[in-house]
């Protein structure tokens, strides 16, 4: 984990694939996004991080969560359901990021109140474009709870 960046948003990346973690991190670096990315690899750690409990009691509250739907132990839909049912966590935007293009997965994500559903890119260049898209939309135009103008 890198040192805190002033005025950076805190992103919780819930991703079990180390290669995808690297590509996400590099794409956000290439896009010059002012963020601190914290990564967990399974649903249990994701919920502990978001709730700031156990090993993650001193972790920052995320401003945004990127959630892979395919996770070991507690799967992505269950993580999303818990995040959106907790009053303190509900306002945090959760973007489902997965390789699935299944209409069922897309519908289920929105039924569980995901803020967006994005199919993970396949090529490294597409990850860079995704990072720029995040900056253009989520970090430029979207307002987060508690954010000052």
Describe the structure.
The chain is of the alpha/beta class. It has 5 helices and 5 strands. The protein has helices at 18-30, 43-51, 76-85, 103-111, 124-137; strands at 9-14, 35-40, 64-67, 94-98, 116-119. A 5-stranded parallel beta sheet has the order 2-1-3-4-5, sandwiched between helices. Helix 1 links the parallel strand 1 and strand 2. The radius of gyration is 14 Å and the shape is globular. Mean pLDDT is 86; it is low at 1-5.
SSE diagram, text form:
Layout (H helix, E strand, L loop, with lengths): L8 E6 L3 H13 L4 E6 L2 H9 L12 E4 L8 H10 L8 E5 L4 H9 L4 E4 L4 H14 L12
Parallel strand pairs: 1-2, 1-3, 3-4, 4-5
Helix pairs in contact: 1-5, 2-3
Oligomeric nature of the chains: single chain
Helix content: 25-40%
What is the strand arrangement across the widest sheet?
2-1-3-4-5
Order of helices and strands: EHEHEHEHEH
Instruction: Tell me the distance between the termini.
Output: 28 Å
Shape: globular
User: What structural category do the secondary elements indicate?
Assistant: alpha/beta
Number of strands: 5
Instruction: Report the uncertain regions.
Output: 1-5
Round the Cα radius of gyration to an integer and report it: 14 Å
Mean pLDDT: 86
Largest sheet: 5 strands, parallel
Count of separate DSSP helical elements: 5
Strand content: 15-25%
């Amino acid at each position: 984990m890198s040192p805190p960046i002033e005025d950076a948003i805190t992103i919780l990346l819930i991703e079990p694939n180390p290669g995808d973690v690297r590509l996400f991190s590099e794409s956000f670096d290439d896009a010059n996004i002012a963020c601190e990315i914290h990564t967990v690899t399974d649903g249990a750690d994701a919920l502990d991080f978001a709730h700031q409990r156990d090993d993650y009691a001193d972790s920052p509250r995320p401003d945004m969560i990127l959630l892979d739907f395919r996770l070991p132990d507690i799967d992505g839909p269950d993580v999303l359901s818990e995040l959106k049912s907790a009053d303190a966590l509900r306002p945090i935007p959760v973007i489902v990021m997965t390789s699935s293009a299944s209409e069922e997965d897309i519908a289920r994500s929105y039924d569980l109140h995901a803020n967006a559903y994005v199919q993970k890119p396949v090529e490294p260049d597409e990850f860079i474009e995704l990072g720029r898209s995040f900056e253009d939309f989520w970090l430029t135009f979207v307002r987060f709870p508690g954010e000052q103008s």
